[in-house]
Design a protein that fits this description.
single chain; 507 residues; mainly beta; 5-stranded antiparallel β-sheet; 4-stranded antiparallel β-sheet; 4 helices
Length: 507
């Protein structure tokens, strides 16, 4: 194992640059990495540290400041074209609270691990939880959430259309991290309920949502692919109890394409997030169960990008114009027939990917990333993996001041069947973290049309991040640092290192 560890320590996987080994075996960034040349929004090289003109807001830029290794031997297997430690719908696999950053993953022997560090430090302290991954299924991610009002860390994990596992920390652990020991005793037992609440036997896609009041909500799917509903549960820190709020999306209704008809589906979320003003936003796509709606059986039955929002903590859902289109726990849910909620119409023949990503800018404007195969390449995706690798392009979608939705092709080939992440800096410049650790950006001044490559993390010889990555949305809002959790590419089931790379954005 030491030999393998040393072998992996001879390179910086994300940047494709050499590493040196620091104290306690923590990998430190070679200074040459930090003295590189960055691409500005116009594509020209600018030296690190160059300041923007004082009269104008700076355009997008990134500067790698650190790359730390969480685990030299993280669990590795590929299923559904993804890794269980890095999946787009994993909210949150990496988060920051009260000056400390937290990460969760499965290590080589399948044990669930949670770690923390003080922000800015290179040393992570790990806690092994009493749970081992039950199946080689990349859906079975670990998701974390913080209930700010009582300082608890919540984790839900290891489920794909079946039962889940959860564990919660002691009160105050995250509220005052330096006053509490970071060890296994800080966590309660692993259970198969949500604090005693039984939700569903067909559970998938846990996403914790911190509410403005300091409580916590959990979004999840009940059901299976092509026949499921999105639902919410809510945690009250004052009582320490979870309550099921119910489903807010529907599976029924009729959808007809040029090829056939489907009567059952599920909604896939691009995310579900509160903005700084307390509005809850959700972009989504629909997946039909009946394959007859597709031009070829090897495609994806995903279609359309929808958008809804809630101003009453997820109880009532409205389209972008403010029309009520569904209620949580009621008979009228958000359904495929709610066409006013569609932000971008697209049929099921273009390999539209589900569960990409979303974010809001400082004004509360909703933005989303979507990706598919444009019609100029083919009007019929026959093998969604091969065709997406060959032809898929990412697109940026946002709502303009006049109420219209604007879609801009980013122009950088995905070269992957997988998904990207979206983030904003303090100047509302947008950043898309594409598969393999590539970062592209666009300026608000251009209305997010001048997308350019800012960083290429594929590494020398094609080494580097496997594909999808996880970003720390909470740290970005706190100090303008884009933290990216990624796992090195491996083969078969050979474990590989998992890292957190930190990028400074314009301040």
């Amino acid at each position: 194992m030491r030999a393998r560890r040393q072998l992996r320590a001879d390179r910086l996987a994300f940047a494709g640059r050499p590493l040196r080994t620091g104290a306690l075996g923590v990998l430190a960034v070679c200074p040459l990495v930090l003295a590189g040349v960055l691409a500005g929004p116009d594509g020209a090289g600018t030296t690190v540290g160059t300041t923007a003109h004082a009269a104008a807001a700076p355009g997008p830029s990134v500067r790698l400041t650190a790359d730390t290794e969480l685990d030299a031997e993280a669990l590795y297997f590929v299923s559904y074209d993804g890794l269980v430690n890095n999946n787009s719908f994993q909210k949150n696999g990496l988060l920051t609270h009260q000056g400390h950053q937290y990460a969760a993953w499965y290590t080589e022997d399948r044990t669930a691990v949670v770690a923390r560090r003080a922000v800015g430090e290179r040393t992570w302290r790990t806690v092994r939880l009493p749970h081992k991954l039950k199946a080689d299924d990349s859906h079975n991610v670990i998701s974390m959430g913080v209930s700010r009002a009582d300082g608890r860390l919540h984790l839900v994990m290891d489920s794909h259309s079946d039962g889940f596992f959860s564990v919660t920390s002691r009160a105050g652990l995250l509220g005052d991290p330096t006053a509490h020991d970071w060890n296994a005793d800080a966590f309660g037992p692993v259970t198969t309920t949500l604090g005693g609440l039984t939700l569903t036997s067909r559970f998938t896609y846990p996403q914790f949502i911190a509410t403005p009041e300091g409580n916590l909500q959990l979004s999840y799917r009940s059901g299976v692919s092509g026949n499921g509903v999105n639902a919410l549960a809510e945690y009250d820190a004052a009582t320490g109890r979870w309550t099921a709020l119910g489903a807010w999306s529907g599976a029924s209704g009729t959808y007809t394409s040029a090829h056939g008809t489907s009567s059952t589906r599920n909604m896939y979320l691009h995310g579900i997030d509160y903005d700084s003003r307390g509005t809850l936003h959700a972009f989504y796509t629909w997946r039909e169960r009946d394959a007859s709606v597709m031009c070829a059986p090897g495609g994806l039955s995903n279609h359309d990008t929808g958008y809804v929002r809630s101003t009453d903590r997820g109880r009532t859902w409205k389209d972008a114009e403010g029309r009520v289109v569904g209620t949580t726990g009621g008979r009228d849910t958000v359904d495929v027939g709610d066409t006013s909620a569609v932000a971008d119409h697209l049929g099921p023949d273009h390999g539209l990917m589900n569960q990409e990503h979303q974010a809001t800018d400082s004004s509360g404007t909703p933005h989303a990333l979507i990706s598919y195969v444009p019609g100029r390449f083919t009007q019929c995706v026959r093998d969604y993996v091969a065709d997406r690798v060959a032809y898929a392009r990412p697109f940026h979608l946002h709502r303009e001041a006049d109420g219209k939705w604007k879609k801009t092709e980013i122009g950088v080939p995905l070269a992957s069947s997988q998904r990207a992440k979206l983030a904003f800096d303090r100047y509302d410049n947008a950043y898309a973290v594409l598969p393999y650790g590539r970062i592209v950006g666009a300026s608000k001044a251009s209305d997010w049309t001048d997308w350019k490559t800012l960083y290429d993390g594929t590494g020398s010889g094609g080494r580097g991040a496997f594909g999808e990555v996880v970003i720390d949305e909470t740290r970005l809002a706190r100090d303008g640092v884009l933290s990216v959790l990624y796992q090195e590419r491996s083969s078969g089931t050979t474990p590989s290192p998992i890292h957190v790379a930190d990028f400074a954005l314009p301040q």
